[in-house]
Specification:
This protein is an alpha+beta fold and about 230 residues long. The protein has five helices and 14 strands.
Amino acid sequence: MTDLTGGRATRDPYEPELVPFQEGGSRTAQDESVAETGTTTVGLATRDGVVVGTDRRASLAGRFVSNKNVVKVEQVHPTAVLTLVGSVGGAQSFVRSLRAEASLTEKRRGDPLSIDALATLSGNFARGGPFFAINPILGGVDEAGSHVYSIDPAGGVMADDYTVTGSGMQLAHGTLEGEYDPDSSLEEAETLTARAVRAASERDTGSGNGLVLATVTGDGVDIEEYDDATAVL
């Protein structure tokens, strides 16, 4: 409501202010500050353990390569790893938080968390924490066997025999589909993982610059870096 005072329109201070509608929704300043990145991360469960592989490129929305030597797999548990996918800051913070909580729980109980419990904890963190634009893979081994989970940004936890996340996921899935074998050896799983990452790197501009390969067994975690994925083929 307005009135005219001296030829000027004066707005009623108690009148609700209407904000013009913007098509396509709106983004907050916080949303705009989140860097969208590209990557390819692959996780395979086998009878002998878990293999997780990623590329080594950090990019800005897949248009500019900001770093060529990123390790996108981190150990978060005596026999489990987590990949870094999405917002760099959010992914790094997520890894630190999950690693700390898993370590504290182990100290309190005297035994490491099961991988299923670790996956549930990951989903709870993703749902309730300030971790923007993440979609990691959790892979680990415990008394129940080998496990691979994808954790979505809303906190959803999906268990599978193999999974792929990141901007190169469609290309990597094309390599895995029809060739994955749950009874394969760790060496065979490493080769298939390397092939999947390499296939994504050939066409996805957000992926490339080599390979990081993590092998997880009941004895622990081994993480290796390669300048070229063909070194594992």
